[in-house]
Amino acid sequence: MFSVSWVRPKKLPRSSPIIPARDWPWGLPKPGSSTAQPSKGEKAAEESCFRFSIHGAATSLPDIIREALVLLIAQEKERNIFDQRAIENELLARNIHVIRRRFEDVSEKGSLDQDRKLFVDGQEIAVVYFRDGYMPSQYNLQNWGARLLLERSCAVKCPDIATQLAGTKKVQQELSRVGVLEALLPGQPEAVARLRATFAGLYSLDMGGEGDQAIAEALAAPSRFVLKPQREGGGNNLYGEEMTQALERLKDSDERASYILMEKIEPEPFGNCLLRPGSPVRVSQCISELGIFGVYVRQGKTLVMNRHVGHLLRTKATEHADGGVAAGVAVLDNPYPA
Question: What integer best gives the mean pLDDT of the chain?
Fold first, then answer.
């Protein structure tokens, strides 16, 4: 699993459908996917590691360099340290060691040998696990150089830059275009129909007639749409009056192409008690978002593994338009009633 020369990227992405209102006819609508540092996945990681061990996945790989390490690219000040440590502990239980370094450390002490093997502090790295580098503000010139070094190496990247970009809002919007799924899944009309049935409406804001029409529709009925920038994490989307003001400012600017417009999903609220720090415990009207964790491994263009390994249910009060668990808005929930 951790061969530095065999497997290319490994990823634990999350696909997040919203729990819809009862009259949504097409199953669970999916507002987006995350391929950059999805957190709260340690339980999914436990199951994934267990499946690898019972199916003997390691025996199907070439000789593994046992001394090679997992490099976790960490932020200077990390709030999600506990779920990261849970993953580290699961790996350590399987005699796989993790070192934590910043981009700056890689820039100063990272190197490649003639075979593109990656070394940091003189230690060979088998897997690079990114928990930093998913927002433009997290890159300066030195950090970009470190990311390029990591991408050029033959270490497994989790994710590599291509997979990370595949999770951006713009790519998700392009995947929804008629003809794109058909090209990716030739001769599989039923699979295409099932996938497209989960898509919420996604609209380009590129300069031109298509983008102009999308903006006009959103300004005419702002309650039907949400404006999404190319950002990971909660708290970035714009709704209602904020969205209207942003569209008025952007409509004649090339900057609008860095956003997409999405049909707003209207899930059916339900009563629940949320336990959040600093907030009184009371019954609130809530909505939920179900995230599906998956493991995806490929060697070049060859798919090695693509499977579901767990789930995450987040619930928040309807009074909050945006924001997740780390933002202090949503709480972790259970899809199975007690």
Answer: 84
Specify whether the CB–CB gap between 236 and 31 falls below 8 A: no
CB-CB contact of 232 with 37 (8 Å): yes
Listed residue (237, 200, 261, 189) closest to 24, CA to CA: 200
Helices (H), 81-140: 81-92, 103-109
Largest Cα–Cα distance of the chain, in whole Å? 62
Cα distance from N-terminal residue to C-terminal residue, the chain: 37
Tokens read off for 287: 């909505």
Q: Tokens standing for 107?
A: 């820039």
* CATH level 2 (architecture), domain 169-263: 2-Layer Sandwich (3.30)
pLDDT tens string 119-166: 999 999 999 999 999 988 899 999 999 999 999 999 999 999 998 988
- Work out whether strand 202-204 and strand 259-263 pair parallel, antiparallel, or are unpaired: antiparallel
Specify the DSSP element, H or E, that contains 292: strand 283-299
Give the range among 51-65, 300-314, 315-329 with minimum mean pLDDT. 51-65
* DSSP sequence for 181-206: HHHHSTT-HHHHHHHHTTBPPEEE--
Domain positions in the chain are 10-167+287-333, 169-263
Q: With contact defined as beta carbons under 8 Å apart, do 263 and 200 qualify?
A: yes
Angle separating helix axes 81-92 and 42-54, nearest 10 degrees: 10
Pairing of β 156-158 and β 123-130: parallel
Look up tokens 């932020």; give the residue.
75
Which CATH architecture describes the domain 10-167+287-333?
3-Layer(aba) Sandwich (3.40)
- The DSSP 8-state label assigned to residue 18 in this structure reads B
Q: Give the closest residue to 73 by CA, choosing from 131, 6, 113, 149.
A: 131
Reported confidence tier of residue 42, pLDDT bands at 50, 70, 90: low
Which one-letter DSSP state was computed for residue 179?
Answer: T
Q: Residue 54's pLDDT is what?
A: 40
Report the C-alpha gap between 226 and 228 in whole angstroms.
6
